[in-house]
Amino acid sequence: MTTPVTTPDEFIERWRTPPNLRVSNALTATSFTFPPALDVLDAVRQDDEVRFTILGDEDWSVRMDRTAAFRTAPIEEVATWPFRLVHFNLTRFYDSVLSGFQEQVMIPWRTQMSSWGFTWQRCAPLLFISTSGASSTYHNDNSHGLVWQIEGAKTFHSYKNPDQHLTAEAAVVGETTAEEPPEHDPADRQSVRMGPGDRLWSHALTPHWVTTESPLAMSVTLSHGGLCHQGRFADRELALRAYWDQHPDEAWKLDLRNVRY
Ligand SMILES: [Fe+2]
Question: Matching Gene3D superfamilies, A to Z (predicted)?
Fold first, then answer.
């Protein structure tokens, strides 16, 4: 599988071009300890800005009932339902369940990236929680993601050579999004299994999908919009900038993530 990037020089050399990279903990060390995923889920599910989708083969009426009860049902029971959940504004929890995240994760990461010569327009954490049987959609994001698996396991699927499957221009206009990936040769796929503590660099505008490999899985993606190293964007991001130059009213509308996670 992919050899992890272990030094800043190597990261600087490889951040710009697919395929995705495992990133060693040596580059992403943090003193922050997450609360258990179940506790995070319990806090986040009650927030107005949470988004979740109940999945599974049950009858539609069961899924409707679960959707209605998602915020209030006993948390241990909710954790047995197939679902995926995202939250795009974790600052809402910096004074509660994610106390210390700003000081121990975001500030050190931004300081480190800055010291390596990076600039960006947006850098924010996104939270993903899912249960057994739940997959993300097939999509691409406008941002680069440092995907950080916290609890449980997921597999992050993308392509060894995204250009063979989706041009940067097609990614920019969102031709990707679907519930499932299209038919493809499994040999073209890059599937990275991620356990607790694992990090992966996911390139902007590359199609991907994520499958849950444990009963409950939680990850956080540090999302980077408009990332540059010494003034240079990533190869695929140039297509986004060219598109926004021609369609300024659409710039930043899908800023950090795909609206369909
Ligand atoms: Fe994504």
Answer: Cupin
